[in-house]
Amino acid sequence: MRVTMRPVSWVLVVLLLLLHSAWAQMEGRISGVVSDPSGAFIAVATATLNNLGNGTKQTTITSDQGQYSFPVVAVGQYELEIASPGFQPYKKIGVVIDVNGVLRIDAILQTAQRTQSAQVTNVPTASESTQTDKSDDTSFGLMHYLSKNGRHDVHNETWNLYGQLTAIGFDKPSFHAAYTNLNGSNSSLNTYAEQSYTQTLTLFFGLRLRPGTDLYIVPEEISELTLSKLKGLGGATENFELQKVGSVKPTIYRSRFFLRQTFGFGGQSIELPSGQMQLGEHVDSRRLVFTLGNFSALDVFDQNSVVGDLRKSFFDEAFMTNSAWDFPADARGYSIGGAAELYWDQWAVRVMRLMPPVEPNSQTLVFQPFKYYGDQVEFEHDHVLFGDQPGAVRLLLYRNHELMGRFADAINAFEANPADNAANCGTLYNYGSENPTAPDLCFVRKTNVKVGIGFNAEQSITPNIGVFFRAMYSDGRTEVEAYDSADRSATVGTKVKGALWGQPLDSAGLGFGTSWISAIHAKYLEMGGVDGFIGDGALTQAHENMTEIYYRKHISRSIYLSADYQRVWNPGYNAARGPVNLFGGKFHVEF
Amino acid sequence: MWSSERPCGLAFASILVAVSLCSLPAEAQQQAEGFALERLYTSAPGGGWIVLDALDMHGGLGGAMELTTGYEHDPLRVQAGGQTLAVVSSEAFVDFGLAATYDRYRVYANFTMPASLTGDSGTVGNYTYTAPNVGLGSDPDNLADIRLGFDARLLGDARSPFRLGAGAQLFIPSDSRANYDTDGRVRAMGRILFAGDQGIFTYAGQAGVHIRTLDDSPIPGSPQGSEFLFGIAGGVKIPVGSAKQFVVGSEVYGASAFRSFMQAGETDKEWLLSTRFEGTGSSGRQARVKLGVGRGINPQFGAPKWRVVLAVELFGWTK
Predict the structure, then answer these.
(1) What CA–CA distance (Å, rounded) separates A250 from B146?
(2) What is the rounded CA–CA span in Å between residue A422 and residue A289?
(3) Is the CB of B146 inside 8 Å of chain A's CB atoms?
(4) Are B201 and B234 in contact (CB under 8 A)?
(5) Residues from chain A contacting residue B98 (CB–CB below 8 Å)
(6) A478-513 pLDDT, tens per residue?
(7) What's the predicted TM-score (pTM) here?
(8) Mean pLDDT of B269-284
(9) Which residues of A touch B136 (CB under 8 A)?
(10) C-alpha A7: how far from chain center
(11) Min CA distance, B14 vs chain A (Å)?
């Protein structure tokens, strides 16, 4: 089934969002911030709104920034109660909601006799800075429902179960290009109008085998249709889910199956909120965490809590991680291996070894961990700026020791023997180019090394505004093995929460990205070569630049609709092509 | 791997296969496809036995999580014309299950991850078999068919001498037939379940139908359409302290294709020495560890030469 939505359809989607927003104004809403006497925000506090007219209740929990919201409140009289372990309960009576009424009720909870279980967020630790998204939507899930009914304890879990459903669609109108797939090359973005979509359904199981030892299993289903068979874009693939290599026919697979072992070394006691792939628990701010099994490098490394989970924020793969980070993974983005993380208050150090694919971008991993591997090291420091706003900086280094081809070797092989051209690969692993005048990597794959260094920063400016920056420089000598066709990349952007305009569960983002390739990579493409995702048969080298803006609208409970626009200049690093406009929409629900 | 070994118990099946093969053109070499080979249809999470079901759901809202791993040797040996080919000689899996119970009802889901499936490719009679090659590296994220189930106890209470129930299961296809872990199409089961406890003795049984639309007859070793399911288990409970017990028993179970009902070539029968150590509280959180060791009574049609199963369950009920 092909998505046939045109740009006008996306306009309708936006209109529907606005209509819903207008409809919501017929109700009232209540929101606010919960803090302790020092002003530190209290996360995961339970806020209960009792309707004194009909006896019904609404309940929610506060975010990491202490925010709570009841976005749809019928006209009437209410009583608001807020409770958090370690604090005295807060109660406000005589709360009256009129038509279109918007109330902000901030609460300061007084410290109880014992306060060690409270999580305060004005002095973040390295682990806390990566948890921002996890308590927002899961508060409507099964676990919190059971917890509120006394059948489960989300703060000290032995098991949990979460799920999500996400559908993303894109429309790409036709665009201008001086040429497409010259001389039998096959990796251009098609110039005619196309549509793409993905749909994923995921279940997240967590099970505590013993104190400190957790098991996580994550089955997932995906159905997808790509633009131009996922060819033609270097670091700016419009939908991050497209990396999972599905088909129109739904595919079910196990995305993760791993053990996590935690050893505590003291320091502060901090709460890690219950969420996807996280059992709710209290851990030491000084601890050692081992992860072993089947997982994604992105589960452990290069996290950025301002960008957060892309199912809840931006759409483009450029914002998921550094496009130039060729992290080891199978074609869906997952691998097998181990990671160790040492958290020491505001510092964290991580190391990881994962298995690479047998062939570039293939589904099969080569399971020889001492012969072929990808190694990662990351250093993280969390801090507070602008009074009490959390932020973090991270430095990531990687070294891949894998079977892959060097651009220089492919060029040399072709120049030495023109029979070694892209149309002559035969049974050697290749990307299907039929260009007889171009070099190809299929002749030169052998054990090679790829290295890179990256920087990742995030900073909250106010409780509702965050900014982020990522940049990475890879050596650019070898082909892409597992992620994007990019040798260097940078992204910068901001995410704003809807509390600024009275819609606390809405959010919006604006981001810019650029990626580029090494000189030898460019020469290879100029000669007509193709790699995993790009190659037009010729090249007028330029940076591939992109910008994205989105709005995420809260519909009900944990249901969200997003509208998105992206513009990509010089697709595939080729100034002779584009720019390309992309109009997207996203439906997301968690349970 | 070729072998001249020919178990005498399979003589009739071999004759049937040979007769079937004779009806094919001599020069035809047909490619046999894979299918859902696994015959260990484990009990629902929290179900007590390894295969059979204790039908002891009770109380208010409850639940169970289960992690099972197992290994089996030679689950698919194809024989014809004096030839034997172990198309699947080695299979290992990990299964994760989750159940929710309320009163006498249970819903559950199981996710099975093949860890290893290997064997020998070759030709037997007029059919060419390609062995699966599933491993951690080659198939890092495989999931076999997903099982969704519902059980209800119709007669008796959780500890009565005779309990009667019914259950239904739906298998949603996943992965590819070449890996011998799916039929590539939806399957379903309907079962009548019974169980009971009398003193130190405990028992369980089942009879049902496996609705299977895949019919690859006359390809030797392949599914022959819908099947009859059967099984019975019995054991002795040995109390350990006031709230735990050790159960030792046997489980015998199998399936037979209706197409050739109870004929050796289309019937699998297995036996398991079934042991478990479990909490016996009627409410609160409990744990159970299960170990089964057994062999195929007639090791064909998916029954292995021998198998080992280890499972851990966390389960509980509210009053």
Answers:
(1) 13
(2) 46
(3) yes
(4) yes
(5) 161, 205
(6) 999 999 999 999 999 999 999 999 998 999 999 999
(7) 0.78
(8) 91
(9) 336, 365, 367
(10) 25
(11) 37
